[in-house]
Each structure stands twice: as structure tokens, then as C-alpha cells.
Design goal:
The protein is mainly alpha-helical. The chain contains six helices and no strands. The chain starts with 8 loop residues before the first helix and ends with a helix.
């Protein structure tokens, strides 16, 4: 599981897409940085036109913004100011929810076999045996193997 979730095909696709985009972003930034360094090296002593100068400034600005993008992302390991739990009426509903939010019980994971067995059992439990069938079953008795031998010996003894 990923973050406590059962991974389905759709979730795996989303996770794969996120990881791919992160890697691609890193590659694109490295490529842009390489291109900027290459142009700086090639055209170091020459004078550039206004269009070339604006393009270089734009690329430098894009690269700087892309590197600086994660600067304002909250760090999960840093301190965060807690939320106010008491509302205007003085209720502490949210405070009590926070106490149990972290410790939610996970549902029992069932295999396909267990689900199938439960479905069969529920169908069997709901079936009602008709009264006629119950009466018919009472008419007959079980025949055990030793009774058969006893009867067959009596029949054989009577024929001699």
C-alpha cells in the first residue's frame, strides 16, 4: 500500500504519472541550465542582439523561478501553528476529532476467497427449507454399514 491505501490500477497509474513528471521536470531543468551555460561559453566575447539578450534573460528568469518554486512549500518536518479548535459558540468538537483522527481503525482486508465464502454463506442462511421437505426427511432413517452386514448375514443364514 501507498500511504495506507489499497493500490488499484488507477492509483498505480496516477502514482506512476507523478513520479514520471518529477523526473521529467528535473531533466528539463538540467537541459535548460546546460543550454544557458553552453550559450554563455560560445558567445562570451561577442555582442548579442536585443532579441538574443531578452531571450537569455527570459531563460535565466525561468530557470531561477523553477529552482525557487519549492521554496514556499511547507516542510512536513517543520513546526506548524496549530489550528484554533474552539468555535464561536465555545464548542470543542474539532478538538475531540483531532484526538481520534490519527488512530482510525483500518477495515479488515478480505481476500477474494473470503468474500466468495461469505456470499455463499449468506445465501445459504437466507434459504428457508419448506415444511414438506422437512417432513419427508423425518420419514427416512440413516442406514449404517454394520446394519447392512447384520441383515445380509441373517439372509444368508436363512438360506442354508
Amino acid at each position: 500500500t501507498y500511504a495506507g491505501e489499497k493500490l488499484t490500477t488507477q492509483k498505480l497509474r496516477e502514482l506512476s504519472r507523478i513520479l514520471y513528471l518529477e523526473k521529467r521536470e528535473k531533466k528539463e531543468l538540467e537541459l535548460l541550465e546546460y543550454q544557458l551555460r553552453d550559450e554563455e561559453f560560445l558567445f562570451d566575447g561577442t555582442e548579442r542582439t536585443g532579441e538574443e539578450q531578452r531571450r537569455m534573460e527570459l531563460y535565466n528568469k525561468i530557470l531561477g523561478m523553477a529552482r525557487d518554486r519549492n521554496r514556499f512549500k511547507p516542510d512536513p518536518d517543520s513546526y506548524h501553528i496549530p489550528d484554533a479548535y474552539d468555535d464561536e459558540d465555545g464548542r470543542q468538537r474539532d478538538r475531540e476529532e483531532v484526538l481520534t483522527a490519527r488512530y482510525e481503525e483500518e477495515g479488515e482486508l478480505k481476500t477474494e476467497q473470503q468474500s466468495w465464502e461469505e456470499a455463499l454463506l449468506s445465501r445459504v442462511k437466507h434459504k428457508v427449507v419448506p415444511d414438506d421437505r422437512a417432513r419427508k426427511e423425518e420419514q427416512y432413517e440413516y442406514v449404517f454399514e454394520d446394519q447392512i452386514e447384520f441383515v445380509s448375514q441373517a439372509v444368508l443364514a436363512g438360506t442354508r
